[in-house]
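Marked as duplicate of an earlier ticket. Keeping the data here for the record.
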Amino acid sequence: MKRLAAVLVAALAGVALWIAPRRPAPEPTVNAAGSPAASPSIVPTPHGPAVIPLTLPSGRVLQTEVMVKDEDRQMGLMFRPSLPLDHGMLFLFDRLDKHGIWMKNCKFPIDILWLDEERRVVHLEEAVPPCTSEPCPVYAPLRVAAYVVEINAKQARREKALVGSVLQFTLPDAALAGR
């Protein structure tokens, strides 16, 4: 009898998994070589990505979402109607690389900044438009980078965040472990 009950429970669990709604896997974040981006060792808060202040060279401070997990980096700014002027997004990676960024399902243009380990801007793409047809172009820096920052279009030039300038931010303690 116990064996029959165990078989029935296992069968019902299998049916429940089979009929459960399935979410499609998100598109991979890729680096310039076309391989999946590495997953950093930082663990975001249970309520979503951490938010930290990031200071631009002009002195303007942005509230910046820190994208650590693959699924957060893959989602990025997709499907958002806009980005408040005092906000940005910071992508962290485990290793230096020519991390590629695309604009699939984005609704507005942005500036994309690639930073080295010293947080110096090594490449800038200004006013990158949303992708309107497939295949979406991938934007990649000319030099390797440790971080990518996304801000509103034309904000980089206005706030003096140009190649060679330094952005200031402090990562949460968890971010420093293993980097």
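See parent ticket for discussion. The chain has a mean pLDDT of 76.
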